[in-house]
């Protein structure tokens, strides 16, 4: 009986030992990209990997979502309204005003901004004009009686040292303009980053 118990325990210990050496445990880690709030899957790391091997582990750049994916979606959504006539308070293809265009473009992607441009200008992070990127919002004071922010545009391109933005004007409806145009350059007040 004693010989049987020794063989039994020896067999169990060999089985356990063989499981721990041949079976590799992997750990998958998910982190959140603070810029896009999307999950990034870090490559699996085998149990027992040495610390210096971890330092050499790099993320596959194709697995990391681009920072501006949401911005491009919003820009493309806004561009579909190019040519729509101006309508005060409008947010549909039947007509829209400047803040209606921006409000609707962000809302369609589950980002809710205030409906009025001067209230939108209280959201996000105020940045320098030279830091402007696609998807940022430009705010203007177009010589209104209250001297408040009363116009907003969404940056859609930066090319040849010109910031291009989509917005809705009373005369032309939804159009793309350049901040280099004298009127918009003089009316410009600030730029804000929502995403």
Automatic annotation (TrEMBL):
Keyword set includes Ribonucleoprotein: no
Annotated signal sequence range: 1-17
UniProt domain NlpC/P60: residue ranges: 68-195
Entries under InterPro entries matching the protein: NLP_P60_dom (IPR000064), Papain-like_cys_pep_sf (IPR038765), Peptidase_C40 (IPR051202)
Top-level taxon in the UniProt lineage: Bacteria
Keyword Zinc: no
Pfam families: NLPC_P60
Keyword tags: Hydrolase, Protease, Signal, Thiol protease
Family per record: Belongs to the peptidase C40 family.
Name by which UniProt lists this protein: C40 family peptidase
């Amino acid at each position: 009986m004693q010989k049987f118990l020794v063989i039994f325990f020896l067999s169990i210990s060999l089985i356990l030992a063989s499981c721990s050496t041949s079976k590799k445990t992997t750990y998958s880690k998910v982190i959140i990209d603070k810029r896009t709030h999307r999950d990034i899957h870090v490559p699996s790391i085998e149990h027992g990997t040495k610390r210096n091997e971890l330092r050499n582990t790099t993320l596959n750049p194709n697995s990391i979502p681009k920072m501006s994916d949401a911005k491009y979606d919003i820009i493309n959504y806004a561009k579909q309204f190019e040519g729509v006539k101006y309508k005060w308070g409008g947010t549909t293809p039947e007509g829209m005003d400047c803040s209606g265009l921006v409000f609707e473009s962000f809302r369609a992607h589950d980002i809710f901004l205030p409906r009025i441009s001067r209230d939108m200008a209280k959201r996000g992070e105020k940045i320098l004009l030279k830091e402007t990127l696609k998807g940022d919002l430009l705010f203007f004071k177009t010589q209104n009686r209250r001297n408040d922010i009363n116009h907003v545009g969404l940056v859609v391109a930066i090319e040849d040292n010109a910031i291009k933005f989509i917005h809705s004007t009373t005369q032309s409806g939804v159009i793309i303009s350049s901040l280099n145009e004298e009127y918009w350059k003089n009316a410009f007040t600030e730029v804000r980053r929502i995403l």
